[in-house]
Design goal:
The structure holds two protein chains of two kinds.
Chain A (H helix, E strand, L loop, with lengths): L9 E10 L2 E7 L3 H7 L6 E2 L6 E2 L12 E4 L6 E5 L9 E5 L25 H5 L6 H13 L14 E6 L3 E4 L3 H12 L4 E4 L9 H4 L2 E2 L2 E2 H14 L3 E4 L2 E7 L3 E6 L14 E7 L2 E4 L3 E3 L12 E3 H9 L13 E5 L2 H12 L4 E6 L12 E3 L2 E6 L6 E6 L2 E6 L2 E5 L2 E3 L12 E3 L4 E3 L8 E3 L9 H19 L31 E3 L4 E2 H9 L5 H8 L12 H12 L3 H4 L13 H5 L11 E2 L3 H6 L3 E5 L2 E6 L8 H14 L2 E4 L5 E5 L3 H8 L11 E8 L5 E11 L2 E5 L5 H15 L6 E4 L4 E7 L3 H6 L17 E6 L3 E6 L8 E7 L3 H11 L6 E2 L2 H11 L31 H4 L2 H4 L3 E8 L11 E3 L12 E9 L4 E9 L8 E6 L4 E8 L14
Parallel strand pairs in A: 1-7, 8-16, 9-10, 9-17, 10-13, 17-30, 19-26, 20-21, 20-26, 21-22, 33-35, 36-46
Antiparallel strand pairs in A: 1-2, 3-4, 5-6, 5-7, 11-12, 14-15, 15-16, 18-27, 23-24, 24-25, 28-29, 31-32, 34-35, 36-42, 37-40, 37-41, 38-39, 39-40, 42-45, 43-44, 44-45, 47-50, 47-52, 48-49, 48-51, 49-50, 51-52
Helix pairs in contact in A: 4-6, 4-9, 7-8, 10-11, 10-12, 16-21
Chain B lengths: L16 E4 L2 E6 L3 E6 L20 E3 L4 E7 L2 E6 L7 H8 L4 E4 L4 E7 L3 H11 L11 E7 L2 E9 L2 E7 L3 H16 L3
Antiparallel strand pairs in B: 1-2, 2-8, 3-6, 3-7, 4-5, 5-6, 8-11, 9-10, 10-11
Helix pairs in contact in B: 2-3
InterPro entries (chain B): TrmE/GcvT-like
Organism (chain B): Tropicimonas sediminicola
Protein name (chain B): Sarcosine oxidase subunit gamma
């Protein structure tokens, strides 16, 4: 046990937890990492490639080593950083990336083969033989890749999302962030303060210093209390702002319940989309290490982290309290850790400082101008080799703190390709002003890293932000913080014969960087990909700058000449669950239900997704064992008597205004402005490039009042394009467009007995052919006074109507039609029979109008009126389109027992099946109960003059080859007599 | 009067009500809606005495009638308890020559109430990506909610109406019910 007195843990709340099956105890306020250290556990994981034993390296979200599988069962989450896991009672964690126990990982054999796994290993090794890649290499690599493993069970938790619109977002609640929030909050700005930690304070909690003569933690508590009392300030702890996006939008994840054993009634996490007028980045800095030989042993950690464990969590880093601790540093900050340790009575082996002539800041030994050149201790540090004054010696020590200086956390400032600038003075990349618009950087995040600097800078930057917001603010009194020595001298790595790790998580060493240099992978982006440096889940937070420095040394360039890596969101890993919002299964996306959905459900309909719609596909009856039986019955019933089908999904656009006719003339390829009240006309719409894109009917209800019907799939698109034309192309036309798709339930009533059926529900409306002929429309009432619209149009080729009533009555109307028409054998039919009926009639739909076809191909070239202009008309006449010789025709199999398969390509018998001999393709196919065989529609080169010829419909994907004969596309009533009857 | 029996947007015979921790979520099947448009440059009429609002505005008049802006020269006129009537015809009678389109069943209205205005604000920030000014009392805004297009009408501090497409009613209800349950603490 290495627990000491003090700290910000609650010793009245002991907690028990398990790691790798063993029980331990900790306190409220501990992280899993601090609790493991308190229990003397140093070995917590295995490295990615070499399976080297690894320990806790940091005290924050930058952790590269201490990754565990947290929780059990479906909630198991791999690659969880022990340094940010808040301890709770009953916590269960396991080490990962091992075979066998953590102590005796069988895969540590990889370490013996390290020379073979150098940088670029994959690229060099798996090049040949080529055929091995798919069968052998890729599966093997995939199995070995990654660290932890997934539970393979569905995520049981709920996730939420939300939106915030503050004047100012303050990212980070350390010294600078608190001062920024305080300054802007007092000025009345709406402020959102977000911090990834469970409590505000940032490094102030880790330093244990004094501010305004009070302990830093108390000063923090006072500021937090004031902020909580400001109604215009909102604080989100456990919230990581992970990305800066366009237009001042920031993404943040609030870990609502991750500190609890289970979320219970709460959501696990919330995704916040924050639209901030301005933001202040006060994310502090991350300490970097100094690579030296065998620098990856458990017990070696960042010196600043060591200080945090001592001050905040009251834990010392060695396994046994009596083991001495050493510090290896190139700066004064390392000495501050020594002072903190000494103050708690931790035995110190000394401070090894690369700088010559430095002396101790307290009662401990300093080795000036010295380096650490090696270590011992397979599963935990036992000794370090010290090179000092030309001689080497071994020092026993149980832990080593390493400090190579601090890297400002510039990540979010780089998210819009903002390039940080190198500061020779600070020996660090600091943000330039080329980051996301409206984002200011304060405190250690821009190199103003001492407590005093950060406090002052937070207030100063806050005033700048207030000025930009147009809010007047007052400079606050800057709290007095003690002076912190911070001198530093560049020192990037200790040359070593053995391996010196730079990126711990991806096992990238100084040697790997040297090899990348040798192999000419010198630009930073090449270095990154060749070695995988910075590509692990920690994104190289503790490694990138050091790697740049090593590469700079090798190339003889300066660090800024060598470059910098681009940081991209997310700042730390974000679960897919929270990004997805937690909507799964049926709730994955919104579903549109037709007005007759309850009735169809009661009939046992089988539904099919049609875009967002759920449509009844067919209505099985008792005794029908195959969908084809049902569909054949439904299709036959329509041709023999009468069928009803909900067609509400077709788009309906109300068009009104004195210029409505002219507007429609320009929208449709054919003349529409001449349509008289009480009439319906089929219409074809072209894209600007002349390709056909939608068809449907247009009904004229009254002078200057039309209803445009679109296909289901294009309802939104057509409405959008019509609005675009109205607002942007022809604003001079006085016309109004309103979508009424949802407002009206529309039911197709089709078949020779449709007139008789409808006659039974209309209120005194003359349904005779003379009074209401084909392509007529009327507003009328049905069922005792309900307003309705009736259209005499036909998709099936039969005598048919579509009747529309206010949507709330759609279900009742369907029930009424089914009830009233029992003696007529009225039959409900779904989309499948609808498809059969229209293919039999040769009506085109989305399969035929697929964005690649022209009016000419559809046999509708004469519909593109030359009497007026319309969208796409001129372009449709260009040679490439008007000269297309393919025409829509029908197909039947030569052998009636053979299927016609949609998507098959047509070739002449005897020709090779390749695109050079392609004659067209089958667009739609079905079994036709009317014809008694499979039938199809398709485009055939010169199809209209080749009826009767035979072709091969080839479907090489499924090895099918069917002899088919080209026939008229109209399998039913080619003269069109039935629908006019 | 027709002998057909209507159903609500959620497919029931009576409107659905759900309560959770201070929230009341209620399907309003009685709200009649009709859109009104006038030619560009024509002065806004005053149907039923309503002063038709500018962009983002919600006007409340006598007899449960209200109006909100939907586009330039275009408004939605709403009337409580009139859904079973031909409200579009009534509106047209008020504005002869106006372009009126029946909208009652194009939409579904869900009323959310809480005595605590802060509860309404907490809910809105979970539902819609709008700044507080756009959801202040007296404001009406069209926006996205869970990938669905809706109008958010903040009638009072303690009352907001979400109007969404009728065919999406079940999905919208689910989204609202989930949100009030989470914030109301019953889930």
């Amino acid at each position: 046990m290495t627990r000491i007195q003090g700290g910000l843990i609650d010793r009245n709340r002991p907690l028990s937890f398990r790691f790798d099956g063993r029980s331990y105890s900790g306190f409220e306020g501990d992280t899993l990492a601090s609790a493991l250290l308190a229990n003397g556990v140093r070995l917590v994981g295995r490295s990615f490639k070499y399976h080297r034993p690894r320990g806790i390296f940091s005290a924050g979200s930058e952790e590269p080593n201490a990754l565990v599988e947290l929780r059990e069962g479906a909630r198991r989450e791999p690659n969880t950083r022990a340094t940010v896991v808040e301890l709770y009672d009953g916590l269960v964690a396991d080490s990962q990336n091992r075979i066998g126990s953590l102590e005796h990982d069988l895969l540590s054999v990889n370490d013996l083969f390290a020379p073979f796994f150098a940088a670029g290993f994959y690229y060099k090794t798996f090049m040949w033989p080529r055929a091995f890649w798919e069968k052998l290499y890729e599966p093997a690599i995939r199995r070995a890749a990654g660290l932890g493993s997934l539970s393979m069970l569905a995520d049981p938790d709920a996730y939420d999302r939300g939106f915030q619109h503050p004047d100012l977002l303050v990212i980070g609640g350390g010294a600078a962030g608190l001062m920024a929030a305080l300054t802007t909050g007092r000025a009345g700005a709406s402020v959102l303060l977000a911090d990834e930690d469970c409590r505000l304070g940032g490094r102030l909690l880790a330093e244990g210093g004094v501010i305004d003569d009070t302990p830093a933690a108390d000063w923090v508590a006072g500021v937090v209390a004031e902020l909580e009392n400001l109604p215009n300030v909102r604080i989100l702890t456990r919230t990581t702002v992970f990305g800066a996006y366009d237009h001042g939008v920031y993404g943040a994840v609030e870990r609502v319940s991750d500190h609890l054993p289970e979320p219970g009634r709460k959501v696990r996490q919330t995704l916040w989309r924050i639209s901030a007028r301005h933001a202040i980045l006060a994310t502090g800095a991350t300490e970097r290490h100094i690579p030296f030989g065998d620098n990856d042993r458990p017990g070696i950690m960042l010196a600043g982290a060591m200080r945090a464990y001592v001050n905040r969590w009251a834990v010392t880093p060695q396994a046994r309290a009596e083991d001495p601790v050493a510090i290896f540093t190139n700066n004064d900050d390392g000495h501050r850790t020594a002072l903190a340790l000494a103050a708690r009575g931790v035995p110190l082996a000394g401070v090894i400082d690369t700088r010559s002539g430095v002396s101790s800041l307290g009662e401990y030994r300093t080795f000036a101008g010295a380096t650490v050149t090696g270590t011992k201790g397979r599963k935990g540090l036992s000794a370090i080799e010290l090179r000092h004054g030309g001689t080497s010696e071994w020092l026993n020590c149980g832990a080593l703190g390493v400090s190579g200086g601090w890297n400002p956390n510039v990540h979010l400032a780089s998210h819009h390709r903002g390039r940080p600038l190198w500061s020779d003075e600070k020996l660090a990349f600091v943000p330039d002003d080329n980051g996301p618009q409206g984002l200011l950087v304060a405190g250690a995040a821009r190199g103003e890293g001492s407590t005093a600097e950060a406090l002052a800078d937070g207030a100063r930057v806050a005033l700048t932000a207030l000025e930009a917001l147009g809010i007047s603010g007052t400079a606050p009194a800057i709290p007095v913080a003690s002076e912190e020595p911070s001198a530093i001298e560049a020192f990037w790595h200790v040359p070593a014969k053995g391996r010196a790790w730079v990126d711990f998580q991806n096992d990238v060493t100084v040697k790997d960087i040297k090899l990348a240099h040798q192999e000419n992978m010198r630009p930073v982006e090449h270095l990154k990909r060749w070695t995988t440096l910075g590509m692990a889940t920690d994104q190289g937070k503790t490694a990138n700058v050091t790697a740049l420095a090593v590469m700079a040394e090798l190339t003889g360039k300066t660090i800024p000449e060598t470059g910098t890596t681009i940081f991209r969101p997310p700042y730390t890993p974000v679960s897919m669950g929270v990004l997805g919002g937690g909507d799964t299964g049926q709730r994955f996306r919104p579903r549109r239900l037709t007005p007759t959905h309850p009735w169809a459900e009661a009939q046992g309909a089988v539904f099919v997704e049609v875009g967002p719609w759920m449509r009844a596909q067919y209505f099985p009856r008792a005794g029908e064992t195959h969908w084809r039986q049902t569909v054949d019955r439904e299709a036959r019933a329509v041709r023999a008597s009468v069928g009803v089908c909900d067609v509400t999904t077709l788009g309906k656009i109300d068009v009104q205004g004195p210029d409505a006719g002219e507007f429609l003339n320009r929208i449709y390829a054919n003349l529409m402005g001449t349509l008289k009240p009480g009439k319906v006309r089929y219409g074809l719409m072209l894209r600007e490039d002349g390709i056909a894109y939608d068809d449907g009917t247009c009904a004229c209800l009254a002078e200057g009042h039309y209803v445009v019907t679109t296909t289901t799939a294009n309802a939104g698109l057509v409405y959008q394009r019509m609005e675009f034309a109205r607002q942007c192309l022809w604003p001079e036309l006085d016309v109004t467009l309103i979508s009424t798709t949802d407002a009206w339930a529309q039911i197709a009533v089709a078949g020779p007995k449709s007139r008789e059926l409808l006659s039974r529900i209309v209120d005194g409306f003359d349904m005779s052919n003379d009074a209401f002929p084909f392509m007529g429309c009327a507003e009328l009432t049905v069922c005792g006074g309900l307003r309705a619209r009736l259209f005499r149009i036909s998709f099936s080729g039969e005598l048919a109507y579509e009747i529309a009533v206010p949507a709330r009555y759609g279900n009742a109307l369907m029930e009424r039609l089914m009830d009233t028409g029992k003696d007529l054998d009225v039959t409900a039919y779904g989309t499948e029979a609808l498809g059969v009926l229209r293919i039999e009639k040769g009506h085109a739909t989305a399969n035929e109008i697929n964005g690649q076809t022209t009016a000419t191909m559809l046999g509708m070239d004469r519909m593109v009126s030359r009497k007026k202009d319309s969208i796409g008309a001129i372009m449709s006449r260009r040679e490439g389109l008007s000269g297309d010789a393919r025409r829509l025709v029908g197909f039947v199999p030569v052998d009636a027992g053979e299927p016609v398969v949609a998507g098959s390509h047509l070739v002449a018998p005897g020709d090779p099946v390749d695109m050079a001999h392609d004659q067209g393709w089958i667009t739609s196919a079905c079994y036709s109960p009317h014809v008694g065989s499979s039938i199809g529609l398709g485009y055939l080169v010169n199809g209209d003059s080749r009826l009767g010829q035979e072709f091969i419909a080839a479907n090489p994907l499924e090895g099918q080859s069917v002899r088919v004969k080209a026939v008229s596309a109209h399998f039913v009533d080619p003269e069109g007599e039935r629908l006019r009857d | 009067m027709t002998d057909l029996t209507p159903i609500t947007a959620l497919g029931d015979s009576v409107p659905r009500v759900h309560t959770a921790g201070g929230y009341t979520l209620r399907e309003n099947a009685d709200l009649a809606l009709a859109s009104l448009a006038v030619a560009r440059g024509v002065a806004a009429p005053a149907p039923f005495g309503l002063g038709l609002p500018d962009a983002g505005g919600l006007a409340v008049g006598e007899g449960g009638r209200s109006a909100f802006w939907t586009a330039p020269d275009q408004w939605m006129i709403a009337a409580e308890g009139m859904a079973e009537t031909d409200f579009a015809a009534s509106l047209l009678a008020e504005v002869p020559g106006g372009r009126v389109t029946e909208q009652t069943d194009g939409w579904t209205a869900f009323e959310i109430a809480s005595e605590d205005a802060a509860q309404i604000e907490s809910l809105l920030e979970r539902l819609v990506n709008l700044p507080a000014a756009a959801t202040a009392p007296g404001r009406a805004t069209r926006t996205g909610l869970e990938h669905m297009s809706v109008f958010v009408l903040r009638r009072t501090d303690s009352h907001v109406t979400i109007i969404g497409m009728r065919t999406l009613a079940a999905s919208l209800w689910h989204a609202l019910e989930t949100a009030v349950d989470r914030l109301g603490g019953t889930q």
